[in-house]
């Protein structure tokens, strides 16, 4: 009988500490409004180039602002602070040596086409 009472007392004590107060839940609900437009450079979605060695990504730098970054995975070289047009120019130069790819800038995202499929 004492073991059952101890178990019941222990079980209620543990679950009681796990619950937050109403104020805790209200603060947690308000977090998106408090941190919105305050956290930047938090995501990287790599867009690999056809050569499989380099990739680029766009990163938010401020509300409504972003920059592009070009990374060479073999050398670790990182070129940041690029506008979309500058990124397209660098990608064209990089892929021109292979002479098989053309790049068309569509919005903020370059699109790659094999030279015979390209319609520039």
Summarize the model shown:
This protein has 3 helices and 6 strands; from the N terminus they run ααββββαββ.
Q: Overview of this structure, please?
A:
The protein is α+β, with helices and mostly antiparallel strands. It folds into two domains: 34 residues; 71 residues, no CATH class. It has three helices and six strands. It has a four-stranded antiparallel β-sheet with strand order 1-2-3-4. A two-stranded antiparallel ribbon has the order 5-6. Strand 5 and strand 6 form a beta hairpin. It starts with a helix and ends in a 6-residue tail after the last strand.
SSE topology:
Elements (H helix, E strand, L loop, with lengths): L1 H17 L3 H14 L11 E2 L5 E9 L2 E8 L5 E5 L1 H13 L4 E6 L2 E6 L6
Shape: elongated
Straight-line N-to-C gap: 84 Å
Q: What is the mean predicted local confidence, pLDDT?
A: 76
Low-confidence stretches: none
The beta-strand count equals 6
Structural class label? alpha+beta
Strand content: 25-35%
Number of domains: 2
Helix percentage range: 25-40%
> Strand order of the main beta sheet, please?
1-2-3-4
Q: What would you report as the Rg, rounded to the nearest angstrom?
A: 26 Å
What is the element string, with H for helices and E for strands?
A: HHEEEEHEE
Largest sheet: 4 strands, antiparallel
- Treating each run of at least 4 consecutive H or I residues as one helix, how many helices? 3
